[in-house]
Amino acid sequence: MGLPNQCMLCKAESNKQSSVTPHVFGDVDKKHAFYKCKDCDVIYLYPQLNLEQEKEFYAREFEKFMNDRSGTSAGWQGPIEHIKANQSQFQRRWHYLKNYLPSQGSILEVGCSSGFMLFPLKEQGYECYGIEPSGAFSEYVAKQGIPLFQSLEESNKKFDIIMNFFVMEHVREPREFIQACLSHLNLKGKLIIEIPNANDPLVSIYDVPAFERFYWSIAHHWYFSENSLKHMLEKIPNISYTILKDQRYDLSNHMTWARDGKPGGMGRFTAKLGGKLEEYYKEALVKSGYCDTLVLVIEGNVGQ
């Protein structure tokens, strides 16, 4: 497969593009690869899934794909299992979310999956809404009393907070997606986005071959670094933003990847290593910038 004619994000020419990997998890036809743009630093899937393939994938195949990819411990078998498996993710996110949430108000989560982020916020008195393309998860969330929209365009409401976690890498046009979210914010509202960091240490430092074959996913259009985020955001007028760094996975997980070449090692050696070492390890990765997660907090007056 030759180089793309131009970057999918910034449109830089072919001579600025380089191959990252031909190994794309879930690419059964072996027709896709990932490339990196020298100008904007983004890593992107080429060619993209077409709209019909994408719609079918999320409506019918996504949970099975994620279960095959991450194993049963990630909870993709169903909404109840997913909520139980993600309690620690809510707690991790709460550490930074609490600094940006108003004391009361409306929250929309785009890509709310099982609703595990929204249910605790609803219990705190927030007015919560969701968007979720997955049939199994959206049915469950709606039955629990969370109003759902099919898309941003369907909603004529504005919100104090719009948040999405590991969604933007799935979006075909991320700049347009951000602008659409901003147009649905109330004055002084905030958009909070969490995405995987392209500088994940298992790729950028340790170069674990098994992780490479796991990490680069057919479900993702993009892998953003801090630099590529800044490059994209500079093209959006009338916004201010903050980029935070976080580390989801611990030393035990990384040791398991290095030793066994598979996921599922969270907390595996913590009893022997000690919780403090696990935390120091995460803190060191965040400080270095070679962490696995980026959090983007955006304020703007688009559409006001």
Summarize the structure.
This protein is α/β, with parallel strands linked by helices and 304 residues long. It contains twelve helices and eleven strands. It has a domain at 72-200 and 226-300: Vaccinia Virus protein VP39 (Rossmann fold).
Sheet/helix structural class? alpha/beta
Rounded radius of gyration (Å):
19 Å
Shape: globular
CATH topology of the domain at 72-200 and 226-300: Rossmann fold
Tell me the CATH superfamily of the domain at 72-200 and 226-300. Answer: Vaccinia Virus protein VP39
Classify the helix fraction into a percent range. 25-40%
Give average pLDDT, whole number.
92
Low-confidence stretches: none
Task: Outline the fold blueprint.
Layout: E1 17-21, E2 33-37, E3 43-46, H1 51-70, H2 79-85, H3 87-97, E4 106-110, H4 118-123, E5 127-131, H5 135-143, E6 148-149, E7 159-165, H6 174-182, E8 185-196, H7 201-204, H8 209-215, E9 222-223, H9 226-233, E10 239-246, H10 251-260, H11 270-273, H12 275-288, E11 293-300
Parallel strand pairs: 4-5, 4-7, 5-6, 7-8
Antiparallel strand pairs: 1-2, 2-3, 3-9, 8-11, 10-11
